[in-house]
Amino acid sequence: MRVASCISNYLTEFNPDDDHTQPVCEVIYISNDTDKREFKEFYSQMIEETSWCTFKWADPVIALVKNELKLESLPKVIVFDKNLRIVTENGADDLINMEP
What we know:
Distance between the termini: 34 Å
Mean pLDDT: 75
Number of strands: 4
Low-confidence stretches: none
Largest sheet: 2 strands, parallel
Order of helices and strands: HEHEHEEH
Strand order of the largest sheet: 1-2
């Protein structure tokens, strides 16, 4: 899957010192904003509360990821295992319905 390769490359670029031997949870925010101003405004607010990383505005990888993962509606949480295989495509519902 090309998406797995793109995500793996991105995470390596984002944190090149990580040896990826420890359990980790990375969140990559993929914008659906219609213009750069909207993206910057939303992401700047979000980054104050989270440590999510994101692709640069209008990065061509975004279209590839959206297409290959069939991202049509938001929010969408897709969980991958450490080998970047999809565990669930319903991560948002799984989190909402999780027992306390």
